């Protein structure tokens, strides 16, 4: 019997045993067709689940089971090293950690306070460079996509962009090129590991980022994106580096402020909140991040 025939035979036996987890383990290469036969025998002899039998035989571990269950329930995530993304993308690589549980709590609040009220886009901004706002925005985009929301993360930081590095995408063309009329939305990159996540990089770094974001065609672009996606998150340059965040706030209507523990001053957060209000937008919430 050829390897292909063996694989098909094992797959058919697993299907007859009504083991969707076994089928997914086989498809993903976690177990071989030969090992699938061993698992099926133990499953039948002991009357246990396929996954439990595979674990008892030492063929898979708990992480493998969790990943297959995630696929089964449309909750994609990655094993460490898989996907070539930043290891700090914890929502992708460690979705059951306390940090990601907190991210999901933030997501729930944003759904209730903002997106469930007909809003489709939100600006995410930190106070100073290095506050972790870009990484937070990236992880937040992942958890929104894991919820099944068709999500777009736009790198509107036209000064020190980071999303192309975090998601390992081409940084050649992006938002700046679209606003300048040098590219269209085809430059948006779909993140293959997550069905509902796309990223629009910053693109060519312009000499006039604030003026570029202030152009009237940005309103039309934002409306276009809102018609295509359930959630659009804009990662923008830190407020201390310029007024880009206020320009974006006026477009999206809402801002999420990211502060860094033991670094960001409350006075700066309050000052930004006042500026946002003066520009006709609202502060939807604020988050405190802590990292070394």
Automatic annotation (TrEMBL):
Keyword Ribosomal protein assigned: no
User: What is the protein's species of origin?
Assistant: Massilia frigida
* MF annotations from Gene Ontology: kinase activity
Q: Write down what this protein is called.
A: Chain length determinant protein tyrosine kinase EpsG
Keywords carried by this UniProt record: ATP-binding, Kinase, Nucleotide-binding, Transferase
Which superkingdom heads the taxonomic lineage of this protein's source? Bacteria
Could you confirm whether the keyword Kinase appears in this record?
yes
NCBIfam families found in the cross-reference section: eps_fam, EpsG
Q: Which InterPro entries match?
A: Bact_polysacc_biosynth/exp (IPR050445), P-loop_NTPase (IPR027417), T2SS_E_N_sf (IPR037257), Tyr_kinase_chain_length_EpsG (IPR017479), Wzc-like_C (IPR005702)
């Amino acid at each position: 019997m050829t390897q292909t025939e063996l694989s098909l035979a094992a797959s058919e036996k697993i299907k007859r045993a009504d083991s969707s987890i076994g089928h997914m383990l086989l498809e993903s290469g976690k177990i071989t067709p030969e090992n699938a036969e061993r698992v099926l025998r133990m499953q039948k002899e002991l009357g246990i689940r396929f996954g439990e039998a595979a674990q008892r035989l030492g063929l898979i571990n708990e992480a493998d089971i969790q990943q297959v269950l995630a696929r089964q329930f449309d909750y994609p995530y990655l094993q460490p090293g898989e996907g070539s993304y930043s290891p700090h993308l914890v929502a992708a690589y460690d979705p059951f950690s306390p940090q990601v549980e907190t991210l999901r709590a933030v997501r729930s609040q944003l759904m209730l306070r903002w997106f469930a009220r007909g809003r489709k886009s939100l600006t995410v901004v930190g106070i100073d460079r290095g506050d972790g706002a870009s990484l937070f925005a990236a992880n937040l985009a992942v958890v929104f996509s894991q919820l099944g929301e068709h999500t777009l993360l736009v790198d509107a930081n036209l000064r020190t962009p980071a999303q192309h590095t975090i998601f390992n995408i081409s940084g050649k063309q992006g938002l700046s090129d679209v606003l300048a009329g040098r590219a269209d939305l085809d430059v948006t990159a779909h993140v293959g590991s997550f069905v509902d996540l796309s990223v629009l990089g910053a693109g060519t770094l312009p000499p006039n980022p604030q003026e570029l974001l202030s152009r009237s065609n940005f309103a039309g672009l934002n409306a276009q994106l809102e018609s295509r996606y359930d959630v659009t998150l804009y990662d923008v340059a830190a407020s201390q580096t310029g007024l880009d965040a206020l320009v974006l706030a006026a477009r999206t209507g809402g801002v999420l402020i990211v502060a860094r523990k033991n670094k960001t001053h409350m006075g700066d957060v309050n000052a930004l909140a006042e500026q946002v209000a003066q520009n006709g937008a609202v502060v939807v919430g604020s988050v405190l991040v802590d990292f070394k």
